[in-house]
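Thread title: Can someone regenerate the structure for this chain?

I was given the following input by a collaborator and told the matching structure tokens would be attached. They weren't. Posting the sequence so someone can regenerate them.
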Amino acid sequence: MERAIGTFELISVARGAATVDAMLKAANVKLFHASPICPGKYLIVVWGQVGAVKNALNAGRQVAGEMLTDEMLLPNVHPSVFPALACTTEVSEMGALGVVEAMAAPCIIEAADTAAKAAKILLIEIRLGRGMGAKSFFSMGGDISEVKTALTAAKELIIDKGLLVDISFIPNPHPDLKGAVL
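Best answer:
Regenerated them for you:
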């Protein structure tokens, strides 16, 4: 079954609540996340079959109107994105560590998907804008060359959107850092 993720960022909490309600009523999608994020934005993340997610986004766009600041439809999502979003990825050995930080949640999900499709890495966590001044990030582990390849792919995508904050590549993380990241 094909899976897609759809996201909206709005600049109104009130309109965000109305938008997510319209999205859920319009299509058979599952709500992954809907809440205020810093600074006064509202983030919505839904997933389901591609057609259903498109329908939900179309319905939500009508309600969101001028309060919609960013949106993203990501069809054919890499399977490792879902556990990373839910922070349930099981990590036995990380190898090298890569972290990508951006100014918007929708593009960080897209960048994590791009990284996972570009190289054989393990997506560890995707953290979406809450309590971080609207910044979002994802972390990944794997062999040095694979993490470098994934970082390059993610960085290019986010730079094209003008939303890159920073990236870090740590080829051999200290054991205490591994404990903090995992």
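The chain is about 40% helix and 30% strand.
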